[in-house]
Amino acid sequence: MRRITYAGETVITTDDVAEVLVDLTAAVASAGRADAVAIPIVFEGSDEVGEAELVIGVGNDVLSVPVQWTKEEPDFSEAAAGLRQHALYPNETDTVADTSFDDGPDMQWDPDLDGFDRR
After folding, report:
1. Region 26-30: what's the mean pLDDT?
2. What's the whole-model pTM score?
3. CA 96 to CA 118: how far, in whole Å?
4. Which domain holds residue 52?
């Protein structure tokens, strides 16, 4: 379990939600944006769960630290998976793809143009 500190307040959530939240916050900030998200939380001192709404990205710092947790950890895996679906969430397919050129009949190398020319 992790304690998330945001705007002077703290909430507790699972490790996977906290990890996704930190990664998504960095990605949204890197894109120069800010977005609103909701995360599931556990109320400290009880078994009750709830939801926290945060604005993440540019100008919104999120701190995640481990917390001692002796109770059963709730299953927030669906919420973590939902956050991973955010358009800006980094994933393995976000790498630069190899550039390939169409060698079709209408693509010819033109040395005068130092590149391809459509004919």
Report:
1. 93
2. 0.74
3. 25
4. 2-118
